[in-house]
């Protein structure tokens, strides 16, 4: 459901506008996945809405003239094996509800991913391919961060020989492996704690068994002594 902006104060209205932008972006990405990639038996892994940092004037567009448009950089993989990953530029022209596939590169053609600034959240980034170079700014820094994380993980998973270079990226963007290591450390820690608990429980059970054996022996000795005394008095 689309967020409602009516009868709200300035702060709430600003939050609602952000929610509306997020909702529209998510709706657009869902539509792109269904219109552009699903018919080709491809699965879209992620997308980021972008604008060029350096304005590029295009006097004539495929639609028949000049016009405004939204641009998305999309990452997808084929469902058919062997899996092929690709990066596609998708546009939506003003006044149209449909999306158009423009440029496309195989993931193997990606040479460098530049996050611009490793010390702060930045929406700017560059992509360098074998035959192309683009300078972009994402709609938000968080959207860029999410796309970079998916892109980095996809490169690690599907590229075996030549992987692109990720430069000027924040550690959280490259955090796919660290997240996995952190999860592995957590599992290892949990196993160690469980093992320690079992060992301690085993020690307690061992001591309990020893005490039980001692009590058993004491009871047996007491019974033998009582029997001897009873026989003595009987005699």
Nutshell version of this structure?
This protein is of the alpha+beta class. The protein has helices at about 10-35, 140-160, 175-235; strands spanning about 40-50, 70-80, 85-95, 100-105, 110-115, 125-130, 135-140, 165. Keywords: Acetylation, Coiled coil, Cytoplasm, Membrane.
Explained architecture:
It comes from Capra hircus. Residues 176-235 form the V-SNARE coiled-coil homology domain. It is found in: Cytoplasm; Membrane. Forms non-fusogenic complexes with SNAP25 and STX1A and may thereby modulate the formation of functional SNARE complexes and exocytosis. Keywords: Acetylation, Coiled coil, Cytoplasm, Membrane. The protein has an eight-stranded mixed β-sheet with strand order 4-3-2-1-7-6-5-8. The protein has 235 residues and is of the alpha+beta class. The chain has three helices and eight strands; from the N terminus they run H-E-E-E-E-E-E-E-H-E-H. Strand 3 (85-93) and strand 4 form a beta hairpin. Helix content is 45%, strand content 24%. The longest helix is centred in the C-terminal third of the chain and has 60 residues, at 175-234.
Provide key terms for this protein.
3 helices; alpha+beta; 8-stranded mixed beta sheet
Helix content: 40-55%
Radius of gyration: 33 Å
Q: How much beta, percentage-wise?
A: 15-25%
- Give the overall pLDDT as a whole number: 80
Anisotropy-based shape: rod-shaped
Q: Which blocks of ≥5 consecutive residues have pLDDT under 50?
A: 177-184
How many helical stretches?
A: 3
Biggest sheet: strand arrangement = 4-3-2-1-7-6-5-8
Report the major sheet.
8 strands, mixed
Order of helices and strands: HEEEEEEEHEH
Secondary-structure-derived class: alpha+beta
Instruction: Please count the beta strands (DSSP E, at least 2 residues each).
Output: 8
For the record, give the distance between the C-alpha atoms at the N and C termini, rounded to a whole number.
Answer: 99 Å
GO cellular component, one term: plasma membrane
Subunit structure: Part of a ternary complex containing SNAP25 and STX1A that can be dissociated by NAPA and NSF. Interacts with STX4A.
Main location: cytoplasm
Pfam family, one: Synaptobrevin
């Amino acid at each position: 459901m689309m967020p409602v902006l009516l009868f709200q104060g300035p702060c709430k209205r600003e939050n609602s506008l952000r929610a509306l932008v997020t909702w529209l972006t998510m709706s657009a990405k869902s539509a792109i996945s269904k219109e552009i990639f699903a018919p080709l038996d491809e699965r879209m892994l992620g997308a980021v809405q972008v604008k060029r940092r350096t304005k590029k004037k295009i006097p004539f567009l495929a639609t028949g003239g000049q016009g405004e448009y939204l641009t998305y950089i999309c990452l997808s993989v084929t469902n058919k094996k062997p899996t092929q990953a690709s990066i596609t530029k998708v546009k939506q022209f003003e006044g149209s509800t449909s999306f158009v596939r423009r440029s496309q590169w195989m993931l193997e053609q990606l040479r460098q991913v530049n996050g611009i600034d490793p010390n702060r959240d930045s929406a700017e980034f560059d992509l360098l391919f074998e035959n192309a170079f683009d300078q972009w700014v994402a709609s938000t820094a968080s959207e860029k961060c999410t796309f970079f994380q998916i892109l980095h993980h996809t490169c690690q998973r599907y590229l075996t020989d030549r992987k692109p270079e990720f430069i000027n990226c924040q550690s959280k963007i490259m955090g796919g492996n660290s997240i996995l290591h952190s999860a592995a450390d957590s599992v290892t820690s949990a196993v160690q704690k469980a093992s320690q608990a079992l060992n301690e429980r085993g020690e307690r059970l061992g001591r309990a068994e020893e005490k039980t054996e001692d009590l058993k022996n004491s009871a047996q000795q007491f019974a033998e002594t009582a029997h001897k005394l009873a026989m003595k008095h009987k005699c």
